[in-house]
Write a structure and sequence with these properties.
This protein has 143 residues and is an alpha+beta fold. The protein is built from 5 helices and 6 strands.
């Protein structure tokens, strides 16, 4: 873990389970559906501050809202940034991708292999991840 990483597991027992929904890009949604990706990483703000273990999370494709995956959140992890979260979760957060998957996602193979966590910089500026911190939710797919 890099020197500035502070990762903590969040245990939130006793609160009533809630249901949430969030958009997800098609490639990542498919990886969650298949079980290759079991941790979803996001900025720790908005919806993601209220997601708790035991909650139901429905992820839907940003381009096709009919394509969904329902999951149970089994664990919530906090980290200082996406690099620290990747160091904690590894391929559960960002699995190895095939050449066609990389091309389809517009990712460079060498860059993804060297620092997979940097894919999050496409979605969130580094300053925001440092300001808010990040969260990883471990998911168990229901349907």
């Amino acid at each position: 873990m890099h020197r500035d990483a502070k990762v903590e597991a969040i245990e939130e027992a006793g609160s009533a389970a809630a249901s949430h929904s969030a958009a997800c890009e098609g490639l990542w949604l498919g990886l969650i559906r298949s079980g290759r990706k079991t941790v979803e990483g996001r900025l720790h703000n908005g919806l993601w501050t209220s997601v708790r273990p035991g909650d139901t999370l429905t992820l839907y494709d940003k381009c096709d809202a009919k394509s969904t995956v329902r999951c149970i959140v089994s664990e919530k992890l906090r980290a200082t940034d996406f690099r620290a979260l990747y160091e904690l979760c590894g391929e559960s957060l960002l699995p190895r991708l095939s050449a066609p998957e990389l091309v389809g996602a517009g990712l460079e193979a060498a860059e993804y292999a060297a620092s997979p966590w940097s894919v999050y910089l496409r979605f969130y500026p580094l300053a925001l991840s440092v300001y808010h911190g990040v969260v990883g939710v471990r998911l168990q797919v229901l349907s």
